[in-house]
Amino acid sequence: MTRSDTGRPRHPGGPNAGRPGFAWALPATLFFALFAILPLIGVAVMSFTSWSGLGNPAFNGLDNWVKLAGDKVMMQSLWLSALLTLLGVAIQTPLSILLGTWAAGHQKNRAILSAIYFVPLLLSSAAVSVLWRALLDPNFGLPGQFSSFFGGDGNVLGTQAGAIAVLTFVGAWQFTPLHTLLYQGAARSVPPVLYQAADIDGAGTVRKFFSITLPQLRNTIVTSVILMVVGGLTTFDTVLILTKGGPGTDTTITAFYMYRKAFQSFDFGVASAIALVLVIIATTISLVLVRVTGYDKMHSVQEGI
Amino acid sequence: MSNKSTWLIRAIAGTAVLALGVTLTACSTASGAASNRPENVIHVAVYGDAGNTVEEAMVKKFNATSDVKVILDRIPGANYQQKLQTIISTASAPDIFFNWGGGSIQPFVKADLLLPLTGMIKDDPKLESSFLPSVFNAAAIDGVPYGIPMRGTQPVILFNNKQVLTDAGIESPKTWDDLLASVKILKDKGITPIALGGADQWPTLMWYEYMFDRVAGPDLLTKAIGGDSSAWDSKDSRAALTKLKELIDAGAFGSNFDSVSFVDGGSPALLRTGKAAFELMGSWEYSTQQSADKDWTAANLGYATFPTVTGGKGDAADLVGNTNNYYSVIKATRYPDTARDFLKLMYSDEFVQAQLAIGNLTTTTSTEKFLDQAADPTYAAFQFTMVQDAPAFQLSWDQAYPQSASADMHTAVAQFFSGKLDVDGFIAAMQAL
Amino acid sequence: MKAKPNYIAGAGSVIWLLIVLVPIYVMLTATIQSQQGYAAKGPLSLPGSFTLENFTALVSSGFLAYVLNTAIVTVSVVGIVVVLVPPLAYAVVRSRSRGISLVFRTFLLGLAIPAQAVIVPIFYLITVAGLYDSLIGIILPTAAFCLPICTLILSGSMRDITPELYEAMAMDGATPMRSFFRLVLPLSKGGISTIIVFSALQAWNGFLFPLILTQSASTKVITLGLFDFQSQYGINIPGLMAAVLLSMLPVLLVYLFARRALVQGLMGVGGK
């Protein structure tokens, strides 16, 4: 199933009759243009203005961009976004591949466990964040209870390393179930013939995993990583509720910094410039990923262009 | 094929024109929206919390006799000020809105969005004379009144756990040296001397507010807010910061305060369970503790004024906190007379009694005679005397400065406590606000 | 498939099970305790007291209305997505119009437009349209931001319909409309259920649009209700946990009764 698209011979276009025209795409396109493309143009324009939300925006040329280029918090936020995204991918990908292929087995205990693994997915990001915020209180939450065994003062959100670890862990707790599910689905559609052949060759579990399962999961890995990257770059609810970008500005990632500039400091010009940076980075990354992995060929219109 | 492409080009061009059109309209209607304000109603925006019951009752009473009806919009507390600034220059702006006076309304006055209340007060002088002058004046900008006091005053108080103090053989500190001595005794007993919700950042700010007042006197901040940022670099400012640093380094707040949150109930629980001895907090600490454990609060929650600092310039009776809450009126309102009549309710006996009953301390001149009807008369009297006798009542810095400065201020405040900024770093950060 | 059980994997799976369950356990036990009980005994201990106070307080605070609002938003968003996306995906797969590939590429790029990047203009768009503080104001942008991924998913699944089938329809002189209803829709059921699940989750969990675009209690959705719990005057953990639990109950019910559809739907996101 995963190979069928790329392997299918191209059809030299059939008759034009019976093919949908552009009008079929129009309602969705207009709708999307109104709420995404048009605001994007608005953001681009606003990044050259100064505006506090009161009165009218005034053009101020490149001021916002100059300010941003010299803004330490902004530069740090880019590194933090990259770091959190990378940590997310690096931890969730192996974890969810292992869990997913394990859960793909049809044994009863695996079915029960994977049903339970699913539970965090039922909670919204806001719910996950308030839940963990309460659990992480150093005196009355989990750190307090664990520190009586392991020592330490439970100051998990008080240091940069601790806060980043918490965000990474909570992200993994929340999103691993989704990716596990993707891999579980994909692993189940690996043709059993491949494993039977490997059994005949006397390959062990580990060998089979690396030479059959992993290569077969390639496309799913791409999809899953793209989802993680885009999701990681735009993480917002979790940071707002769990760390508020702190301690200090130690977990102020770009998406949160943009919110802070816009809705706490009311500097909509600079906020728009940050937003534009965010869009450009996210677009570039997904374009590169899509190109490198051949994802676009897999999904692009195959005929008639 | 070709007719299809031209069709597409037209479609794209059409979208682009539509796009530009909407953007332009968006910009032009964003300001001055008087014409499209709703008819026959006025919207009153309030900070959404448990205190809304009184506001609801007032609105109900008012609507019974008024042709123009009042609609109460409760905006969730945590988000109140952000929301307000986002909507105030749009057609969705409320006619009357809750605020903290001072810097919280100054940008709106500058943008010419608010109605000076001089005319209303001429119609009904009681709108001014019914309130304590120090409170009323905190919502005047350049001498022009823009706010009528509502709800109550919320001074910051040094709370303690009586049981813990008794066990340690100490009293609530009268002087800074007492405090440092108590910190040492408590630390030796394995108790966190002071509970601090550092994760929320604003509880940390309260320590600066009192330290700067006690060491440098109230004038330093007046100067700083007035635009003289050199005040932050003065000798007094450095002395206040050094003293504060001394307290932090003595371990007064423990080591994990950056992970503790007041909002999540962490720091109040520390105080209540005796794991900490003191907490510096707004007067609402009382109702917070009460809703968690009524009996404990009645028996064991102690309160006292902030200690004095020997040789400091501030008066021992000076207060910091939220001077009061105010209602301000926007210029664009269709019904200024209705707004005036609604505001008159704020000094009515009924309003004062209702506020006292839910634990808010009003600042009308009539308040004193109703104090015995308060939820907790002793606590209410303690606060009222404090406010009445205070030579200066410094509005919380994050309210006194424009809202746009508060995020950076909170960051600096937290970073100085965690040791990430030194005295010079903190001064530079405050000067950059 | 394998003869002997895989012990290492088994141990790993149990560790992950603990990581998943501990917070859930704390949440469940907290909801039935009083504030003092929770603070006194710590999160991992067995509950020492029992009370339903947290739930009754929640119900009387109007939390159920937030659940209803969220349900309205979710159903509407799914409705818009289901109406708009299939024709678009059909056009993407079958149309030979030149503009289509441009449109599809735009949607691919749209995947990378974070909602918060454009939230300020969207706020003004919604205000100008008079939709501020209304559920429609949340529904429209939420649906718009579901379109890219849903289009990607559905066009992927529609591509599995072999060209021969389309050609057979065309031979019979079927209009695009007829092919769409007779052939494409029936054969894309899997893909459509995937986009339903996906957009429903997006709408159910949406936070940023409600945060910026609404203000009053009558338009409050669950996620915002949870956030507002952290108001300045302090909260109680058991009450908060009860709210978290209540916020997941409707999804849990769907999960219990339509587990297969939900899981299959989500698997579909990565299926291609």
Index terms:
B: 433 residues, alpha/beta, D-Maltodextrin-Binding Protein, domain 2, six-stranded mixed beta sheet, five-stranded mixed beta sheet, globular, disordered N terminus, C: 272 residues, MetI-like fold, 75% helix
CATH topology of one domain in chain C: MetI-like fold
Please count the beta strands of chain C (DSSP E, at least 2 residues each): 0
Could you give the count of β-strands of chain B?
13
- Rg calculated over all Cα atoms of chain C: 23 Å
CATH topology of the largest domain in chain B: D-Maltodextrin-Binding Protein, domain 2
Descriptive notes:
The complex is a heterotrimer of chains A (305), B (433) and C (272). In chain A, 68% of the residues lie in helices and 1% in strands. With 305 residues, chain A is an all-alpha fold. Chain A is globular, with a radius of gyration of 24 Å. Chain B has two domains: 34-151 and 324-391, D-Maltodextrin-Binding Protein, domain 2, CATH 3.40.190.10; 154-321 and 402-431, D-Maltodextrin-Binding Protein, domain 2. The longest helix of chain B is centred in the N-terminal third of the chain and has 29 residues, at 2-30. Chain C is mostly helical. The chains are: A mainly alpha (305), B alpha/beta (433), C mainly alpha (272). Chains in contact: A-B, A-C, B-C. Chains A and C meet through helix 2, helix 4, helix 5, helix 6 and helix 7 of A and helix 1, helix 4, helix 5, helix 6 and helix 7 of C. Chain B: Keywords: Signal. Chain B: Residues 1-33 form the signal peptide. Chain B: This is Extracellular solute-binding protein. Chain B: It comes from Cryobacterium fucosi.
